[in-house]
Amino acid sequence: MTAYLNGQFLPIEEAKISPLDRGFLFGDGAYEVIPVYSRRPFRIDEHLRRLQLTLDGIRLPNPHALEEWRRLVERIIADNEFDDQSVYIQVTRGADSKRDQAFPSGVAPTTFIFTAPLVTPSAAQREMGIAVVSALDNRWLRCDLKTVSLLANVLLRQQAIDAGCVETIMLRDGYLTEGAASNIFVVKNGVLLAPPKDHRMLSGITYDVVLELAARHGMAHEVREISEAELRSADELWMTSSTKEVLPITVLDGKPVGNGKPGPAARQMYAWYCSFRDDVMRKSDV
Ligand code: PDD
Which residue of 40, 241, 244, 255 has the fewest C-beta atoms within 10 A of its own C-beta? Predict the structure, then answer.
């Protein structure tokens, strides 16, 4: 498997970084995960724009121009054998010769890209929906930044795994924020509800696609605070992300969501999502 590290394309096994890298010492870096279908990246410009927002948010100069990023990602896709991929990009504040929290001076950032086969939900998960648990959102107040400081997300996601579930849904001050690695939507009385984009959640690329599709097809939707009571009395819950796409949640904390089966709105949105994605991919052929 070919990866990219600081200007070089090389087998992933040969990619080595210093233990003094600030990504390793402090989680001081940004990342992106870009889904690739039939060797074409989906919404790459939006992912690269969000990378820029994260880098700006953590005051780390972007090591590459947009066009360079596109070329690097295209080369990684071409150099690897699978057609559907999940491309991972990471930029850290690099490796100094000492350990100090304050920014180093004159240190080059570390840029790393690798790819893996894209693993989307199984047919059984689509058919049955998935089970999730809820937890207090105990993360910092810049959840809009996609940084590699993910320990809270790691611990939160593990709570789901320990309970035999797939994802952990978080609540802050009694309101829904997002999943440990996904955004969450609620359907109640025929209206799609989405939490507002602010510092409490990541501005998901899939979240944006879902809201664009709801607007385009006239699905009633509202972007607003969602209370715990609304979450627990939802007719449908969905999780969305670049790798999970749009996936129905049918069990929350051991209780059925709605009638306990994937709902009609989730099925409809997933169909719109697939045809929109396939259309975009076809157009990027020319
Ligand atoms: N996670 N919220 C969080 C905390 C996330 O980590 C993710 C994605 C999302 C969904 O964003 P998008 O639709 O842009 O993928 C929301 C990625 C896939 C990950 O960390 O693996």
Answer: 255
Tally of domains within the chain: 2
pLDDT in tens, the chain (286 residues): 999 999 999 999 999 999 999 999 999 999 999 999 999 999 999 999 999 999 999 999 999 999 999 999 999 999 999 999 999 999 999 999 999 999 999 999 999 999 999 999 999 999 999 999 999 999 999 999 999 999 999 999 999 999 999 999 999 999 999 999 999 999 999 999 999 999 999 999 999 999 999 999 999 999 999 999 999 999 999 999 999 999 999 999 999 999 999 999 999 999 999 999 999 988 876 4
Q: Are residues 252 and 140 part of one domain?
A: yes
Pocket test for ligand 1, best of 31, 33, 48, 88 (most atoms within 8 A of CB): 33
Contact status, residue 200 vs residue 170, Cβ threshold 8 Å: no
252 within some domain = yes
Please say which residue of 79, 98, 117 terminates a domain: 117
Active-site entry in 98, 146, 188, 261: 146
Decide if 286 is inside a domain: no
Q: Look up the pTM and report it.
A: 0.97
Q: Which atom in ligand 1 lies closest to the alpha carbon of residue 244?
A: 18
SS (H, E, C) 224-276: CCCEHHHHHCCCEEEEEECCCEEEEEEEECCEECCCCCCCHHHHHHHHHHHHH
Q: Domain range holding 221?
A: 123-281
